[in-house]
Amino acid sequence: MRLSGAERAMLSGDHGPAAQKAMEIVVALAEIYEAEDLVPVASVQVAGVSYGNLGQAGLDFLREWAEQGARVAIPTTLNPAGMDLEAWRQLGIPREYAQRQLEVIEVYRAMGITISCSCTPYLAGNTPGLGQHIAWSESSAVSYANSVLGARTNREGGPSALAAAITGRTARYGLHLDDNRQAQLIVEVACDLHSQADFSALGYLVGQRAGGSVPYFRLQSGLEPGLDELKSLGAAMAASGAVALYHVEGVTPEARARTMVASDANTLSIESLDEAYEILQGAGQKIDLVWVGCPHASLAEIERTADQLGGRQVEATLWVTAAREVLRAARTKGLTDRIEGCGGRVVADACLIGAPLGDMGISSVATNSSKGAFYLRNHPRLQIRFGTLAQCIEAAVKGRWPA
Ligand code: F3S
């Protein structure tokens, strides 16, 4: 494998032990994946933030690296935490958990990372361009960056993304290479898609059947998904099938630019979404918490939530999770007032997967995200419902899943 002089210097410790450790990780991955060289990256998204997922061992590992002098060399943003970093008291987060979570954040801050705490960095200032090499973790963000923006990243893990942030490099393999961005599976979608939840359900089904390959969607004519639908489609496939890149004919940038289908591609036909709804929508009528914003909500989704509420008071807890920058824009537009006036909350920084839901007395969750439902459905103490935004808001208002 070829390394530049600067890369060799980092590897031999000329830039200190933290950079050396980071370069060792990058080079080890390059050797495993038989990369010919490293590629400079324009930005990094680091996952591994929720204290609930990291645990004390993860926090100690990060702290040791920071104490060795680990500092990021390029713009680096952060995945969600397990709570809103400012409003955690009002949201009922236990104090002991909050203290640990804030310690994690301080370590990342010391490394020079932007404390964005969102899985939609592309809605909050970290928006890579077509063909740009990046090193992102967070599977839904990876899918969006590759597919919707046409940037180039593999699915990095937390430590490998951090190593890329410190060195400014990643191994040139996988989706950084042209050949690997071709679709091997044509997905003919023969059913109607009426809502963002439908795109999420479609993503769940295709992810399960794609076997990690790159799908190329042909939707019914006249159907042109918006950015929120694409966000939900990709997040669902990333969760159910580790899909990191997809194309939609006539819509996504690389599908527009050139033929992106391999000559020996298989075909999959999707006639109905019923199977996804049946598997994911769970049981139980009582709803404690309604969760909108997985991946974190755009301004348009927050507005649709406020519209759907239509001034009605909620019985259940309603959280709309979003990047803090999006939350500020929603506040300026008066959308947070409309939601909070109904008893709901727009919550920044948080992902419910990492939140201490059990300790907060929550035993049933409704969401319009198949990714959220997919991850929470095996939770030992939670009942999950998956449905459209309209169903979820109805559940929030009544405290029960609509019949
Ligand atoms: Fe984001 Fe958490 Fe959903 S990281 S995509 S809100 S599971």
By DSSP (H or I, 4+ residues per run), the number of helices equals: 15
In helices, the fraction of residues equals 25-40%
Order of SSEs: HHEEHEHEHHEEHEHEHEHEHEHHEEHEH
Task: Classify the secondary structure makeup into a structural class.
Answer: alpha/beta
- Unique ligands: FE3-S4 cluster
Approximately how much beta-strand content do the residues carry?
A: 5-15%
Span of the ends, CA to CA: 60 Å
Mean pLDDT: 95
Low-confidence spans: pLDDT under 50, at least 5 residues? none
Looking at how many chains there are and whether they match, the oligomeric state comes to: single chain
| E-strand count | 14
How are strands sequenced across the largest beta sheet? 12-11-10-13-14
The biggest sheet amounts to: 5 strands, parallel
Radius of gyration: 21 Å
Q: Quick recap of the structure?
A:
Helix content is 40%, strand content 15%.
